[in-house]
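Give me structure tokens for this 342-residue protein.
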Amino acid sequence: MNKTTIVILNWNGLDYLKMFLETVVKYSTGHETVICVADNCSTDGSPEWVTENFKDIVLIKFDNNYGFAEGYNLAINQLESRYFVLLNSDVEVTENWLQPLVRFMDENTDVASCQPKILSYNNKDHFEYAGAAGSFIDKFGYPFCRGRIFDRIEKDSGQYDNQRDIFWSSGACMIVRGEAWKRCGGFDSGFFAHMEEIDLCWRFSKAGYRVCYIPDSVVYHVGGGTLPYDSPFKTYLNFRNSLFLLYKNLPDNKLHRTLFKRKLFDGLAAIMFIMKGDFKSVRSIWKAHIDYYHNMRKLREKRTMVKGIETAQPSSLILNKSIVFEFYVKGHKTYESLNPGN
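Here you go.
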């Protein structure tokens, strides 16, 4: 069994592989580390390019595009490792990025996953949207980060350079304990992409594990490489998967009340899109809710499975407020203003 396996899931990402894979190899070899590229049936020649240029990289080729969630599930099921590093193809790693993550996992056996500081590749003194300095959710399932709330992204001035527990680690770059991955079932393939790492980390917490942020490790993320942030399909996935997330993981005494309020928020979001003339996003929200109800039978089964691994409810890491209200009404635009001293 390898100690650490870096798994890069690729779908038509040849340009990013050419930009960043050599640096991953340069700064990650040794330390009992293997690098794997798992290819989601690309048509841009990227798997052939990997084979030709990196003889020591393990290449797994799929016959279909299985999405982010199932793509990683299928790849990790074929590998044996103590730790898996899930790394987006559009991430530039730095010289000392891997060792702090592995060392922290070695020293803290109750930690299932941790993430580095994630900065923007295109604006390197600012945090990146997907993960920033560690991430949380509010009581209605809206995600936010230290360094990013909604579309307000902060400059990195060292304000979040403290190691701390977080609610979820970013799928852009996260290290996962193989034992915890298997115990908690890996990603939910029904999510396809987006928010599957939040769902997994919620299960980690329910199973008694911690999730952490390690600022000594730094990477730079392009972001929106496979699916642009303003994509209607991404809007659909985010709204649908938010409902999936809440239904699967909320405690019984909060389930129906919280879902009802979340649906009201989604209705308000649809009205705002109508006012902006963005009817594609309105259709995305409508389709998300229809598909949520179509998946209800499967969701009930998954909720039962989640209850089977539950030993704790990590309420202390869920913001017991509405981040929408805090941001738009009370004017809390940064994590520091939301939680001073954290």
